[in-house]
Amino acid sequence: MSRCFLDSTAFVKLFVQEPGTQALITLLESIEDNAKLISAITPIEVTAALIKRERAGDIRPEDSELARASLRQEATRIVQQPLNPAVLEAARQLLEQHDLRAQEAIQLASAVVAREMFHGLPITFLSTNPRLLHAARQLHFETADPSVA
User: Fold this and answer.
1) Which of 6, 23, 56, 147 could lock onto 11 through a cystine, CB 3.0 to 4.6 A?
2) Using 50, 70 and 90 to split pLDDT, how confident is the model at 118?
3) CATH number, domain at 125?
4) What angle do CA 2, 141, 88 make, to 5 degrees?
5) pLDDT tens across 53-102, in order?
6) How far apart are CA 87 and CA 17, in angstroms?
7) Contact indicator for 123, 37 with CB cutoff of 8 Å
8) Are the beta carbons of 26 and 59 closer than 8 angstroms?
9) Alpha helices in the chain (DSSP H)
10) Is residue 141 pLDDT above 90, yes or no?
11) Which is it for the CA torsion 93, 97, 100, 104, positive or negative?
């Protein structure tokens, strides 16, 4: 895999232990940082997920703080697709064509625009969301669910 786009359901696995965490870490170690892509909204979504888990008592406050610090550092090393007019328009079109929620459409639209930035070079779309993976396959992305061994 030469390039990958991680949605928030995949990216969060780098900061909390979940099924697929180790497999994702191993995969990402084989890819250069400039070939790892996320949407600019992904760090916010992952922060929200970490805080939600902390408030629910699923992770300790000190572990949540360490995870959020690691998230801030990791997000600076990865290429972030900005939420620009092209992404927002692509998200609008995806909502009309696929059974997606708004945040899912933004994630997939970010990958679509990033693929255009790389002039159509292959990008593997990583997610644990079956609906999002289905839509990505319909858009001719290679896909992978890091939680599936």
Assistant:
1) 6
2) confident
3) 3.40.50.1010
4) 105
5) 999 999 999 999 999 999 999 999 999 999 999 999 999 999 999 999 99
6) 31
7) yes
8) no
9) 8-11, 21-29, 42-55, 61-77, 85-97, 102-117, 130-138
10) yes
11) negative
pLDDT per residue as tens digits for the range 26-59:
999 999 999 999 999 999 999 999 999 999 999 9
Nearest 5°: the CA angle 107, 145, 8 is 35
- Domain contains 45: yes
Residue 25 lies in a domain: yes
Is 128 a member of any domain? yes
40 by DSSP, 3-state: which? Answer: coil
Total residue count of the chain as it appears in this document? 149
Flag whether pLDDT at 121 surpasses 90: no
Q: Are 74 and 14 in contact (CB under 8 A)?
A: yes
Q: Is 9 a member of any domain?
A: yes
- Report the domain count for the chain: 1
